[in-house]
Amino acid sequence: MFIATLVVGGIGAVCALILGISLITFAVKMDAREKEVMDRLPGANCGSCGYAGCAAFAHELTSNPDAVMACPAVSAEALKAISQLLGKELGEVSPLIACVRCKGGLNETASRYEYVGPRDCRTAQIVAGGPKGCEYGCLGFGTCVAVCPFDAMEMGEDGLPHVIAEKCTGCGKCVTACPRGIIALIPRSANFSVSCISKDAPKEMKKNCSVGCIKCGICSDACPFDAISVSKDKAAEISQDRCRKCGLCMSACPVSVIASLRMPDKVRIIPDKCKGCGLCRQVCPVEAISGKPKEAYLVDIGKCIGCGLCIEKCPADAIERKIS
Amino acid sequence: MHYVLLIISAALVNNFVLSRFLGICPFIGVSRSTDTAIGMSMAVVFVIALASLVTWLINHYILVSLGLAYLQTIVFILVIASLVQLVEMIIQRVSMPLYQALGIYLPLITTNCAVLGVALLNINLKYDFLESVIFGTGSAVGFGLALTIFAGMREEMDLNEIPKAFQGTPIALITAGILSLAFMGFSGLVK
Amino acid sequence: MKMFRGGIHPPEEKESTRAKAIEDFPLSTLYSVMLQQHLGGPAKVIVGQGDIVRKGQPLSEPLGYVSVPVHAPTSGKIKEIAKKIHPVTGTLSPCIIMEADGRDEWVEGLPCSRDPFIMERDELLEAIRAAGIVGMGGATFPTHVKLSPPEGKPIDTFIINGVECEPYLSADHRLMLEEPDKVLNGARVAMKILGVDRAILAIEANKPDAIRLMEEKAPPEIRVESLSVKYPQGAEKQLIKAITGREIPSGGLPMDVGTVVQNAGTCAAIWDSCSKGIPLIERITTVTGRGVSDPKNVRVRIGTLLKEVIQFCGGTNNAAKIIFGGPMMGIAQFTQEIPILKGTSGVLVLTEKETDISDYSACISCGRCVEACPMGLLPSTLSKLGEKGTWERALKNDLMDCIECGCCTYVCPAGRPIVHFIKHLKALFRTAGAKSKGA
Predict the structure, then answer these.
(1) CATH number of residue A40's parent domain
(2) Is B61 helix (H, G, I), strand (E, B) or coil?
(3) What is the DSSP letter of B60?
(4) Confidence label for B110 from pLDDT (cuts 50, 70 and 90)
(5) Mean pLDDT along residues C404-423
(6) Less packed terminus of chain A by CB within 10 Å, N or C?
(7) Are residues A115 and A175 in the same domain?
(8) Which domains does chain C have, with CATH numbers?
């Protein structure tokens, strides 16, 4: 019994010694935090951060002191946890969302030929430029839906893809997948987008599609903030950084090609706080505010477009959004 | 000649995975890609070869001479565990991507019944020192061969349209069974 | 008989046109000359709206070495420089549209008369370049570039490609029967340029009359070789392997194994340009298929509208599909408002019975495509990768060595559009490559 213990113990001791020596010889400098960081990243390996997967990005974050947060899909809690782990403040990537800029579905558009082949937008595109009459329109085979790693897109009955806002992380895989560049990433806070990117003259465009942008320019005239531009060979496009989300362009558009994600909330003046300075009335682009000096001003809900310029201007903080 | 037959017998005729059905865990777990399969095979060859050598020596010179043959299982596991730790350290140092790719399956070589199986079979079949080492290495090569072949097949299968119910492990097990049937063709080659 | 690996034996379908003499397509009133009718760099338009031009006058100027000009197919006035659907890419491309004045007058000095066999090599190459000669088998690679291999690539063999392995087509066959001297003389000029003293005229065994005639007429330095009938015998790499036994390395060119191949039609064009200064403004095209009432081999000017050519051949008859080129590698068209190009060896008008639009199923790994592939690739794997879009792995499977001959698609029992998948993978690779270069 004693010998047995000695033998086993002895062999164990020798093994331990060898392992101990090896530990020093084969030591590898590894940052234990890397695995922790990686566990907190979404794990979808979408590549949107610019690295080859979440593991590679985790490595970059832990090893490079200047690394910035580049993952658009990381949740707020995960971001906080990662910041704590690394001991530095990591800013949020400004959230983006995918936007499909075409509303020419099965009923609205004409085909050039009958396409026979794989149901993939990219394979269809290489066959004589695609079966759709309009070379800027959505081919409808759903390659964007197939490549989305977050299941945030679905094909509609109308033959067009639709973005599920809650699931979309703005990773951009659908943008690359679309052979016609129809999908773009816009800030999540954006309200409006033009559903057409056609460069054809209106006459040509109308031959192929009944709902495209006719480049009339009415939207550009209606916009008080110079946030939408259109030319004879380019469909209307909204500069999201200047857009005040008032929706005037959408109301003015004769062919309803401007889509809205949600309507902005209108404003109301808090009578007790209002000092009657009249600055809000001056700055309102649609003359929706009226009142007499030194008396509480009033907002005409019917005219108000919810642009919020008055809220910014008011020195007394007396204007608030009316949540409908 | 005897040694050549020993290798053929260990690697093909009585293949550890496909004939003896030992070591199935890494066989299924590490065979998703041929690169990790080859890496795992090399690790296993190293462990089994060294394990055969060391365990035979310990058994012959220490355990048997002191009448402690009943301690074989414990002592062999001790040796194997240490060897696997050693291999882990080496791999981590030499190739970090491989280390990460193998993941949990690397330390699981310790509990791999194939490794202990080789060590114990050496004793049971009463092989001498040289025969033990050759048998051990041959078995390990056979294990690596089966693993690599299977990984290649799984890589190809990844491209096919497999019914949802069979995707992943189910089709892998069915394929392993068919591969095992194929290796039965070797039976009777060496007595 | 000499062979290459793989290949298929599709029905020849040449009965309707192989015995019909070439007919001259009459002068038309409108010609649409596409600016890009060659593989290579762009060219610049040098005429403007309203300009009066003469037959053979250059309409564009090449920008770069691997580029050729296009010429006016007849005399007349430039109507407009517009964009038309390009038959090869299917997208709108620049096109010079001109109205013929009916007089068909050559430009000053053409046709001239000179002896190419006393001209200098550089003179000959310049004549070929200025004449806008490109490979007329369909690839349209600038001939002057092909005939000027760089210093480190010595050439010892010149092959004239009279194989015409694609089913339905008979343009080269009729050319060899009706104008054998032009083809042979053009070949001799090419041989002089390359500095080789032996050449092989390759003809498939299904053209015995052409073989007999050429054997009679060929000079001693050109040997006529009859090749077994197998598609794609006429593909450069397969042709060279069959005749010389040399195999072009992966990603390589014929000059890497000391060989240059030229189509028979190109040789005839070489002769015209060197001896008479005549630019490439017309070609022989086979208009065939059960969807056209009167199949013919027509000698047609480049830029003639397809609908006029089809009218000339009796109009369509239950046509379901129109293809520019042969059935294996041709490009399907969706409109007849397109012009004949320099590389249009044939126009197929097919009925619904002659086409197959059934849906495809999963790959059954039968291996028939692997057997048939003349390049020794794995079309089954490439098709599966094409379905997933993983071009990186496809590159490792020799994606870029595929010559898109169509043998795999032809034999596939699951009806998979394998060449389409391969084209898809190549397009993905090119886009990714362009992106990484910051394009």
Answers:
(1) 1.10.15.40
(2) helix
(3) I
(4) confident
(5) 95
(6) N
(7) yes
(8) 22-102+279-353 (3.10.20.600), 116-276 (3.40.50.11540), 368-438 (no CATH)
Query: Cα B21 to chain center, whole Å?
Result: 10
Beta strands in C131-232 (DSSP E): 157-162, 199-204, 222-227
Q: Which of C36, C9, C319 is nearest to C167 (CA)?
A: C9
- CA A299 to chain CA centroid, nearest Å: 33
pLDDT at position C2, please?
Answer: 64
Which residue carries 């954006």 as its tokens? A190
Place of tokens 């239950």: C318
- Which pLDDT belongs to residue C439? 44
What percentage of chain A reaches a pLDDT higher than 90? 33
Considering only A69-73, A296-300, C191-195, which range has the smallest mean pLDDT?
Answer: A69-73
Residue type for position A79: L
What CATH code is carried by the domain that includes residue A316? 3.30.70.20
CA distances for B158 relative to B128, B166, B172, C309, C363, angstroms: 44, 12, 11, 50, 12
**Which chain B positions have a beta carbon within 8 Å of A28's beta carbon?**
89, 92-93, 96
Q: Which amino acid is at C19?
A: A
The residue whose two tokens read 């040796």 is B79
User: Domain total for chain A?
Assistant: 4
pLDDT of C1 over the 70 cut: no
CA separation for the pair B140, B153 (Å, rounded): 20
Give C218-245 pLDDT, tens digit per residue. Answer: 999 999 999 999 999 999 999 999 999 9
The CA distance from B161 to the nearest CA of chain C, in Å, is 7
DSSP bridge partners of A268: A320
Query: pTM here?
Result: 0.85
Residue A324 has pLDDT above 60, yes or no: no
Query: Nearest-CA neighbor of C378 among C408, C403, C414?
Result: C408
Give yes or no for a contact between C281 and C136, defined as CB atoms under 8 angstroms apart. no
**In this predicted model, what pLDDT tens digit does every residue of C36-78 receive, in sequence order?**
999 999 999 999 999 999 999 999 999 999 999 999 999 999 9
Interface of C with A in 331-370 (CB under 8 A): 331-335, 357, 360
Q: Domain check: are A130 and A165 in the same one?
A: yes
**Which of the residues A2, A3, A6, A15 would you substitute to probe the B interface, choosing the one with the greatest number of B C-beta atoms within 10 Å?**
A15
A106 and A174 belong to one structural domain: yes
DSSP for A142-179?
-HHHHH-TT--EEE-TTS-EEE-TTT-----HHHHH-T
All residues of chain B having their beta carbon less than 8 Å from the beta carbon of residue A19 are: 82, 85-86
Residue A219 lies in a domain: no
User: pLDDT of B52-61, one tens digit each?
Assistant: 889 999 998 8
Cα(A48)–Cα(A98) distance, integer angstroms = 13
Closest by Cβ to C91, choosing from A116, A117, A129: A129
Query: How far apart are the C-alpha atoms of B45 and B133, rounded to whole Å?
Result: 11
Q: Do B160 and C362 touch (CB under 8 A)?
A: yes
Q: Flag whether A215 is in a domain.
A: no
Residue A309 lies in a domain: yes
For C151, residues 6+ apart whose C-beta sits below 8 A from its C-beta are none
- Per-residue pLDDT of A24-60, as tens digits, reads 887 776 667 887 888 888 887 777 777 777 877 888 8
- Both A111 and A129 in one domain: the answer is yes
Peptide bond into A224 cis (omega under 30): no
Residue found under tokens 């570039």: C145
pLDDT band at C437 (very low <50, low <70, confident <90, very high): low
The Cα A221–Cα C270 span in angstroms is 61
Q: Which residues form the domain of A45?
A: 31-93
A44 part of a folded domain: yes
